[in-house]
Amino acid sequence: MTAGSTPVTLAAVLIETDRLLLRPLTVADLDNIDAINAMPDVVRTMGSVARPTALARLERGEQDWRDRGYGLMAVIERATGRFLGRSGLKYWPQFGETEVGWVLRSDVRGHGFATEAGRACIEWGFGSLGLPYITAMIRPDNDRSIRVAERLGMRPLRPDVLIDIPVVVYSLDRPA
After folding, report:
1. Domain containing 75: what range?
2. How far is Cα 121 from Cα 123, in angstroms, rounded to an integer?
3. Which helix (H) or strand (E) holds 115?
4. For residue range 30-85, what is the model confidence (pLDDT) as tens digits?
5. Which tens digit of pLDDT belongs to each residue from 156-174?
6. Which of 56, 67, 111, 107 is nearest to 89 (CA)?
7. Is the pLDDT of residue 11 over 60?
C-alpha cells in the first residue's frame, strides 16, 4: 500500500470522462487485451505478448489494485460500451515511479481517446492519490504516444530501459 491510500476492491474505482468510462482491468478482459496485443502496430511499439504472458500481467495487475489501490484500467466508450483499450497507472518498483500508459485498438486511434484517458488518469493520480509526479515510458520511435504525452504536458526526463525495450521517460509534476 502506498502512504495515504486505502484498500479498494477492483469494482470500487470508476473514472468517467465526456466519452469514456475507465474501470479496473481484470482477467475477464483477456480476450480484448489479446486482440489488441495481436495488432501489428501494437506489436511494433509494445513488443509481442503471448496470451499466457498477457494473462499473467492481468493477474499481477489485479494484485496491484489490491496492494496499491490503483493500476491499469479498461477504456470503454460510453456511447457504445465498446472496449477501446487500456490506460491507467502502473507502479514500477525498479524505478520507484508511477507511469501513466495507454494502448488502444488500431481502429480507434486519432480521435483523442488516448489523451482523454491519460488526462483522466493523471488528474486522478494527482488529485486522489497524491502522486508527486507521473511518468510515461515511450519508445523513441512511437511518434503517436510521444504526441499524446506532449498534449498531456509531459516532457522528456531521461532515456531508460523497460522490459528490455529502450524508452524515453516523459514526466509531469503535480501542480503546486
Report:
1. 10-173
2. 5
3. helix 113-127
4. 999 999 999 988 888 887 899 999 999 999 999 999 999 999 999 999 999 999 99
5. 999 999 988 899 999 999 9
6. 67
7. no
Assess if residue 1 is contained within a domain. no
CA distance 54 to 76: 19
Q: Is residue 112 part of a domain?
A: yes
Paired residues of 76 in beta bridges: 21, 83
111 within domain boundaries: yes
pTM attached to this predicted model: 0.90
138: nearest Cα among 152, 151, 123, 149: 149
Q: How far apart are CA 58 and CA 72, in angstroms?
A: 9
Give the position of cell 482491468.
25
Q: Is 153 helix (H, G, I), strand (E, B) or coil?
A: coil
What are the φ and ψ backbone dihedral angles of 83, each rounded to 5 degrees? -75, 115
Tally of structural domains, the chain: 1
- CATH number of the domain within which 109 lies: 3.40.630.30
In a domain, 92, yes or no: yes
Q: How far is CA 102 from CA 1, 3, 6, 9, 74, in A?
A: 23, 25, 25, 22, 10
